[in-house]
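Recall the central idea of this unit: under ordinary conditions, the amino acid sequence of a chain determines the structure it adopts. In this exercise we apply that idea directly, starting from the sequence alone.
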Amino acid sequence: MDGQSAVAGGRTRTFFGEPFGLAYLSFTELWERFSYYGMTALLTLYMTQQLLLPGHVENIAGFAAFRAALEGVFGPYTTVALASQIMGLYTGFVYFTPVLGGIIADRFIGRRPAVMLGAVLMSLGHFAMAFDQSFLLALFLLITGCGFLKGNISAQVGALYSESDSTGRTRGFSIYSMAINVGAMAGPLACGLVAQIYGWHAGFGLAGVLMLFGLVTYVVGYRALVEPAPVHVAAAPVQGPGEARVIFALIAVMALTIFHSIAYYQNSNIGLIWIDAHVDLNFFGLQFPVPWFNSIDPFISIVFVPVLIVLWKWQQSHGGEPNEIVKISQGAAIAAVANLFLVAAALISDRANVLFPVIYDVLLGVAFLFYWPTLLALVSRAASAKLKATLMGTAFLSLFVSNILVGWIGTFYEQLGPVSFWTLQAAIAGFGAVLALVLAKPLGRILQA
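Accordingly, the structure predicted from this sequence is:
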């Protein structure tokens, strides 16, 4: 099959003018991201307010040995510090395992079986979160399942198009990315509300049900998806010093984004703990569930795209649109400003107005558009065809490093206090902004060659 479906009269059924297989992939990913972001919006709060407290933590199978191993490396943990470290390890490895899942799919089992296996494992992982005893097993299942699903389903989007159809591929990934952001926005809203009304485990159970919706969607569209045969592909050698310089420059840009990512992803970790403890959540008589704040930045990432497109076109016609590395620098600067809003909130009052974290997340949503899609576009443009997929995977490894650091840095929150902690996040993003701006010209020259 070619990703399109025949209908009566010999016409070909499409999805917004694209191959119909894109519909199955987009909705599968929408449900998967719905469940993933719904679960992560609850995780740190759940650990600090229930799971890691006496009366619950003793019930987690294997947790004493797990904690001893962590503290043997990092030293003793408070409850908040331990929760931050676990969150960082979980979200970090979610971005590491897709590299392994892609290798297994490409060389052994194929992409469609890999995605189905991943969806099953993630569903089981979400349901395992509903019990204290299976907490570590749940994290393992979710990390492993995401490894099989995430990279392979993205590769299937590209496989719907011929190698020469670059414009179609761009449209397809735009629609697919929209589905991701819709799921990321809706997950915290739904799971956060259910958790507030019915309890943590009900929220995690809803995430499991949503993941099952994704599995069913994928099964229905199974035959409409392109499936290349697994092959063993030898590593492609680097051709000359010019290509080596491009690879080095791309890896350097990926490393520059780590500073931004640290300041950005803290909003799903210590950001939620700070909001719960230090923000007045009453807004015109309504009580906001804390996980809802994690829906703000993906919403902004959807609605602000046309604004940025207009801005960049205007810049292009008035002296030149900034290159990708300058945009990444600008994104990091915006993330620094976002964190300074939390510094101001902590200085003004111990119970800040709800508008402070709202503005924080709005700015982070804008900042995200400046750096992450820009990085992927840069890799897609500058990498040679034979190394494009490898370097795309390497870009996601920057999120692995970032999230591990997010968790580790979060362990210092109680020692530093809110003002110093959010100042540190602003400084990290600000340093990344300055460093990217300084290196924009030399790296840009290499990547434009």
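Residues 239-449 form a domain with the Growth Hormone; Chain: A; fold (CATH 1.20.1250.20).
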